[in-house]
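Margin note from the TA: students keep mixing up input and output lines. Inputs are the sequences; the output is the structure of the whole complex. Example:
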Amino acid sequence: DVKVTQSSRYLVKRTGEKVFLECVQDMDHENMFWYRQDPGLGLRLIYFSYDVKMKEKGDIPEGYSVSREKKERFSLILESASTNQTSMYLCASTATANYGYTFGSGTRLTVV
Amino acid sequence: GNSVTQMEGPVTLSEEAFLTINCTYTATGYPSLFWYVQYPGEGLQLLLKATKADDKGSNKGFEATYRKETTSFHLEKGSVQVSDSAVYFCALRPPNQGGKLIFGQGTELSVKP
């Protein structure tokens, strides 16, 4: 079974901390995405990547950065966590633009 | 710009009732359209998709038809089960923007026995 694995299901961090959210896929997919999910807002795209060391901003990149050093791993970084970044974070991957996404189970981040 | 609007939830139905979740979109060109489902505590799963006008996507008894004239992609099921309780997301993939998806806000469905 193909998989997208997010390293943590739940995280609690303090305001100002640097936070790393990890995502690994075992499908050799080129494309990887980070979304955040908030009630009433659906999913909003933070960053995405079409290849190793390549990244592009999504709709809400402020306060975030990403790293893709290897094809299978796409990390989301909160440089200085703030309470408005409390959310569910979802990672996804896809082989090409013509296929649907495979999602990870999500990381629920609480910033206190 | 590109956007997706879904009917607001929560939607509460009795088992074996007919389900419709409305989805309309705004897009330039000819997007592909998707329905995803999120069961409690899980990530999203692709439910069905349609890539061109008049295509019908179907899976697990769910159906949706890509209607370009009304810019709609409504999700339907003839007889829902308790196990269909989940959040449903409509999404579009704009043409020529790689794999990016734009999601609606989600509609929560609760099916009672």
